[in-house]
Amino acid sequence: MQVLSGRITLDTSENSWEGRTGDLLVIPPARHSVTAVEDSSFLLTVAKS
User: What is the pLDDT along the chain (49 residues), one digit of tens a residue?
Assistant: First the structure.
C-alpha cells in the first residue's frame, strides 16, 4: 500500500503502523483495517506469487 497523500494507520489485532505521504506499507497476512488519520488517499497493489 502506497500512501499518496495524508496520513493513515494500518492495524491488526497485534500491531499498528502509521503511513504518511510517500510511505510504502506491506499488508500483513492477518485480518487488518486501515483508518485515515486525516484526509488521505492510497494505492493498493496486489501481487500473487
Answer: 999 999 999 999 999 999 999 999 999 999 999 999 999 999 999 988 7
pLDDT at 1: 96
Q: Which long-range contacts (CB under 8 A, 24 or more apart) does 7-15 make?
A: 7/36, 7/37, 7/38, 7/40, 8/34, 8/35, 8/36, 8/37, 8/40, 8/42, 9/34, 9/35, 9/37, 10/34, 11/35
Q: Are 10 and 19 in contact (CB under 8 A)?
A: yes
Residue 10 DSSP one-character state: E
Break the chain into its structural domains and give their ranges: 2-43
